[in-house]
Design goal:
Layout (H helix, E strand, L loop, with lengths): L14 H6 L2 E3 L6 E3 L1 E4 L12 H13 L4 E3 L8 H10 L8 E6 L6 H4 L4 H15 L4 E6 L8 H18 L2 E8 L2 H10 L6 E5 L8 H5 L7 E5 L20 H16 L4 H10 L6 E5 L3 H13 L3 H15 L10 H10 L2
Parallel strand pairs: 3-4, 3-10, 4-5, 5-6, 6-7, 7-8, 8-9, 9-10
Antiparallel strand pairs: 1-2
Length: 343
């Protein structure tokens, strides 16, 4: 008999698909999350266009396949992702999924982009719940902690409000997200409020293993590995024009992309397979807004790479990424943000 996760519903799920999915305890939360989880940044214009009906099919297909963890944020499309996701979840049993959203990052205008104040934080979750059509979220996260006035500000002003949410039943657990892994570790260590999960993005990929090297600093915490395609860099289609990476990383990824195209191999599949092999991560979060993307991710998760793809992966790792000195773009977005504020 298969040990089904708590989210399993016999007359909703595909039983065989759920049996096939792998699950992992999310830190010490007591919940078991699918090793592959659904990111919904693409349920907005953040990464280009999207289709509501296709998003609905993707969500339902993901959940039926055993994926049970969904991540969103008010920043994605300035609420569009949450609104779209809410429509996608309409009619689906609440027990069938865990959902995480965020507070702290909101508007395109740099002067309004971030607000970690208690007042804004309280209003943000209320609005998120309304958009999602839910009474509670499973995890409420501080979005991009590096943009806060300071870690001390988050400790004294923001995290206590998230603790209020938990006591009020509007959230079950508290998480933090961000790009600089060390800053996440510092906040986890200093916080007087219990941190249940850490979402790190683009820090475990074909060219950056920062998260894997830092896991010992997050003992007992649920680890969510997000954006392991490096926000489009590790795909045959390439990144959006706004991508913050420097020229060394972009050039290396372009070489890898071109080599994959020459060999009729999808770079994203190689990148996905690479991170799926990392057993220490509780869940790998990837954006999927089409059924084709969902099928592609599930296929890679279950079936891995063929012989040709394995050879291409070995080539790009040994000949392109091995000697790459520049592994990340930490500090670039902060510098740009400060510059915009001063204009």
């Amino acid at each position: 008999m298969c040990d089904f996760p708590e989210t399993y519903i016999c007359d909703f799920h595909d039983e065989n698909a759920v049996k096939r999915m792998a699950y992992s305890p999310l830190g010490k939360t007591g919940i078991n999350v699918s090793k592959l989880s659904l990111g919904t940044g693409g349920f907005s214009q953040l990464y280009g266009g999207f289709d509501l009906e296709e998003c609905k099919k993707t969500v339902r297909g993901a959940l039926k396949s055993g994926i049970n963890y969904i991540d969103t944020a008010p920043w994605y499309g300035q609420g569009t992702s949450e609104e779209t996701l809410g429509k996608c979840l309409d009619g689906i049993p609440r027990k069938a999924y865990y959902i995480a959203t965020k507070i702290g990052r909101y508007e395109l205008d740099p002067k309004l982009m971030f607000d970690f104040s208690p007042e804004k934080t309280r209003g943000s979750l209320e609005l998120s719940l309304k958009r999602l059509g839910l009474d509670y979220v499973d995890i409420i996260q501080v979005h991009d902690i590096e943009f806060a006035p300071s870690l001390e500000y988050l400790i004294d002003n923001t995290l206590p409000v998230l603790e209020e949410f938990v006591k009020q039943g509007k959230a079950r657990f508290i998480g933090i997200t961000g790009y600089p892994v060390i800053e996440l570790a510092k906040l986890f260590e200093k916080s007087r409020v219990k941190i249940d999960s850490v979402l790190s993005y683009s820090r475990m990929s074909l060219f950056d293993d920062s998260l894997e090297n830092a896991l010992e600093m997050f003992e007992g915490v649920g680890i969510v590995n997000a954006a392991y395609l490096a926000m489009g860099l590790l795909t045959n289609g390439g990144p959006q024009p706004w991508h913050p990476a420097g020229s060394a990383i972009k050039d290396a990824c372009l070489k890898a992309r071109n080599y994959c195209k020459e060999n009729d191999v999808e770079l994203a599949k190689l990148a996905m397979h690479y991170v799926y092999s990392k057993k220490s991560i509780h869940t790998h979060l990837v954006g999927m807004n089409t059924v084709d993307l969902l099928k592609s991710n599930l296929d890679t998760f279950y079936n891995g790479l063929n012989g040709k793809e394995k050879k291409v992966l070995e080539h790009i790792m040994q000949n392109i990424f091995l000697d790459l000195k520049e592994k990340h773009w930490e500090g670039v977005e902060i510098k740009k943000y400060i510059g915009q504020l001063q204009m």
